[in-house]
Amino acid sequence: GDGALSLLRIGSWTLSNLFDGQPRPVFDLGLAMPLLARLLQAEDAEVLSHACWALSHLCDGPAAHIKVVVEAGVCWRLVELLAHRSWRVAKPALRTVGNVVCAEDEADYTAVVIEAGAVPCLRRLVAHSNREIQKEACWTLSNIAAGTAEQIQAVLDSGALGPLVRLATSAATDPEVRSEACWVVLNAASCGSDAQVARLARAGCVPILGELLGEASMVMMALEGLERVLQVGDEAARR
């Protein structure tokens, strides 16, 4: 009933605030995680939003926290929630997925996120009307594109490249969104296989790399990417 729902809302809100505190409270994640996993199955958007924010704060912490979250098996549900009708749920779900992908750990959590079907969802969010969501979707894809050739292939196969190139080259794109879209291209050009680099070149990424030579934070990566493009082109010409 209503009483149970308001208790769930208060409980999820409390957890979300607890994990957002600085310094972080010391607690047994093994106890909190099953509760959060259960809250993620709720139907109520407010409960889902609080639960996702709680997880996003956890995954913004040490790698050990991310490990607990991933091993609890909630990545599938988080990916499902990327398509939630309310951006109040989709946004913290996206932030959590993004934090899992950029975890500094020996384990490759990106593979778990890709397996859960995140990349096609992220590709859809790249075109979202909410600028923050667009930016975070591009940021998450840029971290996936800094991975293995197989992970870069998942980004290319999702059909994300066209929309990303449009965001990176359109004057109408918000500067922060454009910057994150450019990072996807930069990382894929630096980390991709020869065939992937050739595909980036065919999709119109070379002018993007050229333009980034004027950006202090990106110039080294842009040079590296252009060098790869030239190298791949040179080898193709010799065949």
Automatic annotation (TrEMBL):
Protein name stated in the entry: Importin subunit alpha
Name of one Pfam family that matches: Arm
Family from the record: Belongs to the importin alpha family.
UniProt cross-references to InterPro entries, sorted A to Z: ARM-like, ARM-type_fold, Armadillo
Domain of life: Eukaryota
Placement of ARM repeats on the sequence: 31-73, 117-159
Record keyword Magnesium present: no
Keywords: Protein transport, Transport
Gene3D superfamilies: Leucine-rich Repeat Variant (1.25.10.10)
One annotated GO biological process: protein transport
